[in-house]
Zinc-binding dehydrogenase
Amino acid sequence: MKAYVYGPEGARISDVVQPKPKGTQVLVRVRACGLNRADTGMRKGHAHGAAGGAGTVLGMEWAGEVAELGPDAKGVKVGDRIMGSGAAAFAEYTLADHGRLFHAPSNMNFEEAATLPVALATMHNAVVTIGGVQAGQSVLVQGASSGVGLMAMQIAKLKGAKLVIGSSTDAYRRGRLKEFGADLAVDSSDPKWVDEVLKATNGEGVDLVIDQVSGKVANQNLAATSVKGRIVNVGRLGGTHADFNFDLHAARRIDYVGVTFRTRTIEEVREIFAEVRNDIWGAVESRKLQLPIDKVFAFDDIDRAFEHMEANKHLGKIVVRV
């Protein structure tokens, strides 16, 4: 089968052996894949958790059809249209744990379905399960113009947040954030953005920050968060190391929690997917929760898809059709 593999000379489409499902695994005939920021690092040889390095089939988000079931796989049957996340997505066939996938709604094509699994699982966990958002609260999403950022704002609104603030350093994308739930859009590269947040919250700061940037905005996030507020760190786009104002953190009594899928067990991931199904799946099926597709590329043009992502001018998801 064809797959996009990282090797000694970089990533390229290669012929590899088609995998065989074992245990609770499902063999998926992949029809479309969504690109994610972590893919760009792995394409350059960087590890993502335990994955990465020479011989790695890249990709972590897909939509397709069930082709074969492992002996212990449950909840799906051959021919079902599904979408999910996991390793080795950029291929004609991939394996997925039966608890790490969703049935693709009948009103979505494969390209649309491939945009959702990572964003839904990541941001339902960050905003609802860990962030504990409640109706009437205020939420700030750092890096809001990414696919997962757009989903975070929509989930916050769905859960009744009275004020949703999104950040983007790009003026065009910042101008479109209101289409996806933002009541206010701020430029996190502008030193005055904290003042804008405080003004919008009557000087109190937001109840919850979903932070995909960290690094350079860490202390500003503390200043923009209310006393006894919460910061959920889900990314490092602003760098992995930075100065941190521990006194301000203590004075505001902020709960600061880091989350990632890289160190979660399969049991934890299954629980996260189950929580999405149980809590917000109706909004997915009704298309209340959805992501824009910036551009679709053919599998043979996957290098161009990555160049498009690295240019950092897109809004929403970049999709590869397999």
Residues 30 and 187 are 38 Å apart (CA to CA).
